[in-house]
Amino acid sequence: MKTVKIAMIGVGNISGIYLKNLTGLFKEVELIGVCDLVRERAEKAQQAYNIPKLYETMHDAFADPEVEVILNLTRPYEHFAVSKAALEAGKHVYSEKPLGADLEEGKQLLKLAQEKGLHLGGAPDTFLGAGIQTCRRLIDDGYIGTAIGSAAFMIGRGPEPWHPDPEFFYKRGGGPMFDMGPYYLTAMVNLMGGVDKVFSASRASFPQRTIGSQPFAGQKIDVEVNTYIAGTVQYTSGAIGTIFTTFDAHFPYERSRFIEIYGTEGTLFVPDPNTFGGKVKLYRPEEGVLREIPLMYGYPENSRALGLTDMCKAIRTGREARCDVQQTYHVLEMITGFETSARTGEWTKIESEYHRTPPMVNPVLKGVLD
Questions:
Q1: Under a CB-based contact definition with an 8 Å cutoff, are residues 171 and 247 in contact?
Q2: How many angstroms separate the Cα of 262 from the Cα of each of 224, 256, 284, 285, 364?
Q3: In the chain, where are the structural domains located?
Q4: pLDDT confidence of residue 248
Q5: In this predicted structure, what is the pLDDT of residue 213?
Q6: What is the DSSP letter of 214?
Q7: What is residue 207's three-state secondary structure?
Q8: For the chain, which ranges sit under pLDDT 70?
Q9: CA pair distance 330, 333, nearest whole angstrom
Q10: CA dist 276 → 129, 134, 300 (Å)
Q11: According to the model, what pLDDT value does residue 114 have?
């Protein structure tokens, strides 16, 4: 298969693993250029990973006839403008999460991609890894009977102690539900199916945050988003789920991030959906013990860019992309639905329909997809 050529816009904190995997793991894609507002970042990436081109502006990348796909790794509140301009230039787009900073941005991008017949994919792609794909196989094969409910937890004290530039986590498009919620909600709908309506209560517990990491240690951040969010979802199947995300709680990391799926015949313990692997555990009452299940799929290690590579394979073959816009939009509608519900005190109807994309196929050759 002819490689799909990609340009990366944004060379920030998350870019390192994309750079590593696009140039060293996945064999059907080719990263040919990088661009960042801070030119030094792009120069370092170009040199470290032997990337052919450095673009002065993102519009130079959009105008490059060699580029087929734009990888949008900008900050959350910048996702919309970058993705919109790339689509208007006729490029396929894969964006870090979330799709947009509000639902209207998501609607515009969805409509534009459909009108132009372009792929618009997006993170997270962790659900394509060995851990959650194994969980999906167990559910689909009936190991917990009929799924009747779920619970998801992401508990922590916020990223400002370690992140080099954490201010955006507390501005528009930030907060724990926008930042971490997509991992959990994407895993939930892949395991349980689409969501019909959501309910939520939320608040910001602390009006300011103090940065503890360099280079901005000691600086204050004014919090503009809610940071303690408790949500309920009703799946289209009738099952009920809960999700709790917070940047406000002191909590031991090893117990702070997980999903549980409850079935008529057992319970499935899903690993941290921000990882590709992790331990999968199954409890069935007739056994009376919690049993660890061997992972049945590939990519248990940090395989970011797996979803992008999958979309590129879909571009070449015409098959469905697993990290497509119907998924990222459905997740965005849930996130913004939680905000609406917390403001109104009422259930928020989810208007978008969702179907689970196909499960992964184990690779014959690592880095080459089905």
A1: no
A2: 35, 19, 11, 12, 33
A3: 4-125+303-324, 132-292
A4: 97
A5: 94
A6: T
A7: coil
A8: none
A9: 5
A10: 4, 11, 5
A11: 97
Q: At what angle do helices 325-344 and 181-192 cross, to 10 degrees?
A: 110
pTM listed for this prediction = 0.97
CATH class as words, domain 4-125+303-324: alpha beta
CA proximity to 138, closest of 61, 193, 71, 191 = 191
Per-residue pLDDT at 17? 98
pLDDT for the residue 301:
97
User: How many CB atoms are located within 10 Å of the residue 20 CB?
Assistant: 15
CATH match for 132-292 among 3.30.360.10, 3.10.290.10, 1.10.150.750, 3.30.160.270? 3.30.360.10
Token output for 106: 């998501």
pLDDT at 256: 84
Q: What is residue 363's predicted lDDT score, i.e. its pLDDT?
A: 85
119 close to 311: Cβ distance less than 8 angstroms? yes
- The neighbouring-strand residues paired with 154 are 245, 257
For the residues of 149-190, what is the DSSP string, one character each? EEEEEEE-S-STTT-SSGGGGGSTT-SHHHHTHHHHHHHHHH
CA distance 73 to 57: 14
Which pLDDT value is given to residue 147?
98
Count of Cβ atoms closer than 10 Å to residue 195 Cβ: 24
- Helices (H) then strands (E): counts for the chain: 10, 17
Q: What are phi and psi of 20, to 5 degrees?
A: -60, -50
